[in-house]
Design brief:
- By secondary structure, the chain is of the alpha+beta class.
- It folds into 2 domains: about 110 residues, 3-Layer(aba) Sandwich (Rossmann fold), CATH 3.40.50; about 130 residues, Tumour Suppressor Smad4, CATH 2.60.200.30.
- Helix content is about 15%, strand content about 40%.
- It contains 5 helices and 16 strands.
- The strands form 2 sheets. Strands 5, 6, 7, 8, 9, 10, 11, 12, 13, 14 and 15 form an 11-stranded antiparallel sheet that branches. A 5-stranded mixed sheet has the order 1-2-3-16-4, sandwiched between helices.
- The longest helix is centred in the N-terminal third of the chain and has 14 residues.
- The radius of gyration is 20 Å and the shape is elongated.
- The termini are far apart.
């Protein structure tokens, strides 16, 4: 006898795009809409950007998140179908992600804290290149990186901006972070580094007033920073759900062989 399916109480959320809103109406009509405080799972409808927004919400810290792609790439989401959603949720494979914690100090002395699931990036704000010193676990590794910017990416984010900046793709279980420069001017041959995920990285902005730099944790931006510290926040976690045939670990592995 087939075991009865344990029905999930679903809370749906969607981006503002037409495709996502149509999907939201169809799915809530079919499966109902449970308030997040009473739900078992959060189903996000949109693209990768909306998935990141969802993961930064308060409810994502309390509920597993199952994404369905109503955007473009959908790397962090499952394929969209309206049938057998309860069965898919029951079979879904969980993946736990720990975000990066960014502590940024501005030239005015203000301290701001934000988290990033994909990456923290430092970017020049004017026509002049940025000059950035890099410390890892209290040891200065680069006195002066002259560049358009630099980023620190998690394995989950290593296929996003990091890959576009010619950084390495990191397997999900590698327990590594990718430190990747963006358009390096000096030292010309430096292409970045792989760091253990427990490493603490500090960026010190040289000539911060003359060469202003912004720090961005996913979509949260801090302008005119003079120092940025980043570390993995092991006290905070997010649980993503994937169909067994679309697991994130396999997607990242496949991406390494795409050309």
């Amino acid at each position: 006898m087939t075991e009865a399916l344990e029905l999930k109480k679903i809370s749906f959320c969607a981006s503002e795009t037409e495709n996502a809103q149509i999907a939201l109406r169809r799915l809530t009509s079919r499966f109902g809409q449970t308030p997040p405080e009473d739900a078992d799972v959060l189903v996000a409808l949109g693209g990768d950007g909306f998935m990141l927004e969802t993961l930064h919400s308060d409810w994502a810290r309390k509920l597993p998140v199952y994404g369905m792609n109503r955007g473009t790439v959908g790397f962090l989401l499952n394929n969209y179908t309206e049938s057998k959603l309860q069965e898919r949720l029951e079979r879904a494979v969980p993946v736990t992600l720990h975000p990066l914690k960014m502590t940024a100090i501005t030239c005015d002395g203000e301290t701001l804290v934000a988290h990033a699931i994909n990456e923290v990036s430092l970017l020049r704000s004017t026509r002049q290149t940025a000059k950035i010193g890099i410390e890892v676990d209290g040891v200065e590794r680069l006195d002066n990186l002259t560049c358009d910017g630099v980023l620190l990416a998690t394995p989950a984010g290593s296929t996003a901006y990091n890959l576009s900046a010619h950084g390495p793709i990191l397997p999900l279980k590698a327990q590594l972070l990718a430190l990747t420069p963006i358009s390096v001017f000096r030292p010309r041959r430096w292409r970045g580094a792989l760091l253990p995920d427990e490493a603490k990285v500090k960026f010190v902005i040289k000539e911060a007033n003359k060469r202003p730099v912004s720090a961005v944790a996913d979509s949260f931006e801090v302008r005119n920073v003079k120092q940025v510290e980043i570390e993995t926040d092991f006290d905070r976690s997010f649980e993503l759900l994937f169909d067994p045939e679309q697991q994130l670990e396999e997607r990242i592995l496949v991406e390494q062989f795409n050309y």
